[in-house]
Amino acid sequence: MLAPLLFVWPISIAFTHYFANSVASFPYDQSLREHVAAVSRQVSFVDGQPHFALPGIAQVFLRSDEIDNVYFHLLDVDGSLIVGDTELPVPRHPQGLPRSEHGEVLFRDDEYRGQALRVAYLYLFEPGASAARWVLIEVGETTEKRSQLANKIIASVILPQFVIIPLAVVLVWFGLSQGLRPLTRLRDRIQARREADLSPIALRRVPEELRPLTEAFNSMLARMQHNVDAQRRFIADAAHQMRTPLTGLKTQAQLAMRESDPGELRHALRQILSGVDRASHLVDQMLALARAEASGDAQQPLLPLDVDQLLREIVETWVVRALDKRIDLGYEAAGAVLIEGNAFLLREMINNLLDNALRYTPAGGRVTARVVAQGDFAVLEIEDSGPGIADEDSQKVFDRFYRVEGADGEGSGLGLAIVREIAELHQAAASLRPNTRHADGEEPSGCIARIVFRVQRPPPPRGSTPDAVQTGFA
Predict the structure, then answer these.
(1) How many structural domains compose the chain?
(2) Mean pLDDT for each 10-residue chunk of the chain (474 residues)?
(3) 381: closest CA among 443, 321, 314, 311?
(4) Residue 346 domain-assigned?
(5) What is the DSSP letter of 300?
(6) How far is it, in rounded angstroms, from Cα 187 to Cα 411?
(7) Per-residue exposure over 151-178, b if at least 16 CB sit within 10 Å of its own CB, e if not
(8) Torsional sign, CA 434, 436, 439, 443
(9) In this structure, what CATH number is given to the domain that contains residue 218?
(10) Is 14 exposed, middle or buried (0-12, 13-18, 19+ CB in 10 A)?
(11) 7 and 124 share a domain?
């Protein structure tokens, strides 16, 4: 607050000086005006010639002043001195008299004998004569009284500021210190907390001004506590899930060390390799889930992309695995379907859906991937002919490490959790339902995983009227 105050104070002094001079000049200008009017009443015109009839004692009285010097003179139209001081300067009018100066007392600042002078002057015209016949009356006064009065006004205004402004600074400093004391106490309470303490701040002694800020801070702490709890649960679940394959690997390694038969040894090594694959898959799924959560926190930008083309490219990479399992992997083209998405995360999501479908579909079954455009929405579907799913499990399967009881496939329980995280990042809806589609004479079996996106439509050309669009989807 001191910096702008120190900047404004000199400007305030300059304005005070200007207005003080204006105020101080006003009464003395009125006095000069009266002197000019008094002199003008003593001027008369006889046969077109001006005559001045002011007694000598009156002239002495006109010039009398205890502080300033007063000068006056009368000049005719030719500039000849009628009476008064010869060297008193006259106004300059090279093109003649302006109309506004006819009979009007005017003022100007000038200099006479090295002294600043305030001059009042009047062009007095002969009644009924032409505008070319006039007498110039000038009364000038030095400015000492004006300067003294202006200095008194400035002193009366400026001097109290030297007391008031420091006092105001002290009072403001004290007021701010007292006003910020609750904030200081709140800061100390926060700094005194342990690193792991995410409990809310008690609102009992918080001032009303800080209550909204404290409530917002408590809300942030609650969200942080929720995230920390979720991370702890995730770490505990991951540790539990990792313990099983590691225990199996250890057991198989111990058995392999005891075997001397080459056939049994190769069998144990195959079991170890299978356990390593399961553990590696679990680690990959955990890392994928962590990346999806981190992407949601960082709010990565979503760009327009063709989800149908992306689906086709991914399905092509799964053909070899499908052939190894003797599963008919199909793709149904839908043409260009634009959505806003992150290609890396969508690829991870589709890979998890295909992996889940191929894992639980038996040999001889089929898996079909498609994108269906329905009005303002694009529906990505992965359909399989596996064992299906019960309605009560259709939502639970998206929880972390949840496995359907009696499922034969080997999985980590994280694939569909990753799918849900990525779908929510794209503001899409993920669902897994029993497959009700079947050919004639076939019983329905398997599941259909659906991800519903909002379609990204190109802007319509100018001047065109967009057609009505369907806003729902089956």
Answers:
(1) 3
(2) 77 83 85 86 79 68 74 83 82 57 80 87 77 80 86 84 82 84 82 83 80 88 81 70 72 79 80 76 69 56 87 92 91 88 87 88 91 89 86 74 58 75 87 71 73 77 46 33
(3) 311
(4) yes
(5) P
(6) 49
(7) eebbeeeeeeeeeeeeeeeeeeeeeeee
(8) positive
(9) 1.10.287.130
(10) exposed
(11) yes
Same domain, 266 and 380: no
The H-or-E segment that residue 241 falls in is: helix 211-258
| CA atoms of 301 and 295, how far apart (whole Å) | 9
**Tens-place pLDDT, residues 3-21:** 777 788 788 888 888 888 8
Angle at 207 between CA 205 and CA 211, to 5 degrees: 100
Q: Are residues 314 and 353 in the same domain?
A: yes
Which residue range forms the structural domain that includes residue 256?
Answer: 202-299
At 342, list the tokens. 């992150």
Q: How far apart are CA 235 and CA 253, in angstroms?
A: 26
CATH number of the domain to which 27 belongs: 3.30.450
Assess contact for 146 and 118: CB atoms under 8 A.
Answer: yes
Q: What distance in Å separates the CA atoms of residue 7 and residue 13, rounded to the nearest whole number?
A: 11
Length reported for the chain? 474
Contact 27, 103 (CB under 8 A): no
Same domain, 215 and 119: no
- Residue closest to 362 by CA, chosen among 390, 327, 413, 321: 327
The burial class, CB within 10 Å (0-12 / 13-18 / 19+), for 3 is exposed
Residue with tokens 């992309």: 305
Tell me if 99 is assigned to some domain: yes
Residues 229, 235, 241, 243: what is their CA dihedral angle, to the nearest 10 degrees?
-130
**Amino acid letter, 61:** F
**CA 356 to CA 407: how far, in whole Å?**
12
Looking at residue 68, what DSSP letter applies? S
Q: Let me know: does 33 contact 105? Beta carbons within 8 Å.
A: yes
- 161 in a domain, yes or no? no
Domain boundary among 299, 331, 346: 299
Q: Residues 213-260: pLDDT tens digits?
A: 888 988 888 888 877 877 777 677 667 667 767 777 787 788 778 877
C-beta of residue 190 within 8 angstroms of C-beta of residue 201: yes
- The burial of 55, by beta-carbon neighbours within 10 Å (0-12 exposed, 13-18 middle, 19 or more buried), is given as exposed
Classify residue 53: in a domain, yes or no.
Answer: yes
Same domain, 317 and 447: yes
Q: What distances in angstroms separate CA 242 from CA 228, 229, 282, 285, 439, one per listed residue?
A: 21, 20, 8, 12, 42
